[in-house]
């Protein structure tokens, strides 16, 4: 296949140097539907180090001309891609739901967000990239300029199969880098459909390449490749650390977005209906598989019982099912592995003495027996040192923790290795200000759920949630470029 051609069969190819190409391994993996494990969504390439090497070589060669284009010219390709993605929104969203299980409205929302991100970064091609700085030499001109890194490697997870790749690829391209993209194998069909949009927009061959395959082969290959000058990663803590170590060892730039153990604090003066709504939405949408998902619910003792009653009423109303059904609110876990991880955390919670208030089991009845479904789950009597209060579960599990004061709530909220997102529900300005000041999280949200990121604002975490860098909005320029300080004297 050549540039612009659609992959029409259900075998999806790598995209290297402007062509859709099979892996040199001759092998494929299958991508299955977590709502019905017997359904194969598509076959994807099980690529080799040699495939990756060809992609990096193509990117290296293409970047030479790509960086010479004006920002506006690069932006035009992103505008075109946005329009194509928008026209295919329904098909891509449906593929996403079939591949990883989130409900169709959420998948459509995410794809629309991909369109908006592309338009935002297309416009970025027309914005300033430097500053004039007064020199102590009155006859000199001193200013900063930004240059691309070169070839950038992008390693993405399965939980936001459109938004995360797009929020990494779009800024990489607009600032003049070429890209080698390795999506999560679980959502590689959705990724291929996104890359088709870039290809059809006529992006020059080699500027954007996609190689699918195992993390241990293609992901590790990106970490180790001498011609990849920057690596942007979102995923687990463990793999993030491998990316950092490998990048440091060979002097490459890296950026990591990893886990969260995000708290919501419900103060005694909170609007409880609003707080319940946000806890359910922030904790259980996408089956809790967001790095920004609410997982610890820290509630002041005075309103604890009332809040709990309202929360359980809402959780018990949740309709679990195939994300393609219009009455489904919560889909399956994205994979059998993910389901088993969630179930093992639920067991751990019970063993450690937390009290199960709702859910806790795999769902196998009602036509859901072939999928990876778990009940929305709520624990109480959780103490802050329990595993379920410390480790990222990445599933629909809420842990209620009772506290007496806001000071205690903040102390508990900060007591994990993570610091991605945090919410408070309160009407009290003093509480709000203490929370903004003292909460160690990259996103602090007042009277709003912990999940949900605006594309024009910086996104990233503190502590072990990230590499302390930020993605999205104008913050992206910090990763995808290097600053050159220019001193000119006639
Ligand atoms: N922060 C976030 O948004 C995400 C967090 N996670 C967390 O990670 C847990 C496990 O999920 P996984 O899919 O296994 O995440 P993962 O970290 O293994 O996968 C993320 C990406 O890294 C790649 N990868 C895997 N091994 C690699 C290696 N050795 N070198 C380079 N790249 C490699 C994968 O192929 C995928 O593209 C989840 O339960 C959740 O706690 C998972 C996905 C997203
Ligand atoms: O909350 C969001 O919308 C983004 C979450 C995210 O980036 C993630 O889960 O990886």
From TrEMBL:
Similarity comment: Belongs to the aldehyde dehydrogenase family.
The organism's taxonomic lineage, starting at the top: Bacteria, Bacillati, Bacillota, Bacilli, Bacillales
GO molecular function ontology, one term from the record: oxidoreductase activity, acting on the aldehyde or oxo group of donors, NAD or NADP as acceptor
UniProt superkingdom: Bacteria
Name of this chain's protein: Aldehyde dehydrogenase
Keywords: Oxidoreductase
Organism: Paenibacillus naphthalenovorans
